[in-house]
Design a protein that fits this description.
With 175 residues, this protein is mainly beta. It has a domain of 120 residues: Acid Proteases (Cathepsin D, subunit A, domain 1). The chain contains 2 helices and 12 strands; from the N terminus they run E-E-E-E-E-E-H-E-E-E-E-H-E-E. The strands form 2 sheets. Strands 3, 4, 5, 6, 7, 8, 9 and 10 form an 8-stranded mixed β-sheet that branches. Strands 1-11-12-2 form a 4-stranded antiparallel β-sheet, with no helix packed on it. Strand 7 and strand 8 form a beta hairpin. It is globular and about 35 Å long.
């Protein structure tokens, strides 16, 4: 069976410009775990919170955390209020949510991104890795087969332990 590779390259177009990737870029690969037909997760670590599972969503403008996580981040002085944000959700409804600046997030154990903005959603919603973080690791590649996120401009981790799991099954989305 012929394997197909579908990659989406977000060069600095995420930031409004276009650039050619250099040889030193794309130096950090993080395996993604496939859950369901089209959802992909990477392991992460948020300073002041610990290990988390991040759903990768290139259509989300912001990383998202939930209120429970925010309480812990504020308790450990790892979140600072920035502003309120009015956003349109995937279902078309509008919501106003607070945005906080987090000290750092580590993606996959070897890509530390400092000073990231995260929108805070009510309840115990899942964590989303959106463009507010991914643009700091641009250019990046979102690959379906193998399921991986290839990042650039990563600072090395500072010893955070992040569980990395590699999917054991392949989901074919397109032929």
């Amino acid at each position: 069976m012929k394997k197909r590779l579908l990659s989406v390259l977000f060069a600095t177009a995420c930031m409004g410009g276009v650039a050619v990737a250099g040889a030193a870029e794309f130096n950090t690969s993080v395996p993604m775990k496939v859950k369901g037909a089209a959802t992909f997760y990477v392991p992460g670590h948020i300073d002041g919170l610990g290990l988390v599972e991040l759903m990768v969503d290139t259509g989300s403008g912001y990383m998202t955390i939930n209120e429970e996580a925010l309480r812990e981040l504020k308790r450990t002085n790892n979140a600072r209020y920035v502003r309120d944000l009015r956003g349109i959700l995937a279902n078309g409804s509008e919501m106003v949510v607070p945005v906080y600046r987090l000290t750092a997030v580590n993606i996959g154990g070897n890509c530390r991104i400092n000073d990231v903005e995260a929108a805070v959603f009510p309840g115990k919603t899942r964590f989303i890795l959106g463009l507010s973080v991914l643009q700091k690791a641009a250019p990046f590649i979102f690959s379906l087969e193998p399921a991986s996120l290839v990042l650039s401009h990563c600072a090395p981790g500072t010893g955070e332990r992040v569980a990395v799991t590699v999917p054991t099954t392949t989901t074919t989305l397109a032929k």
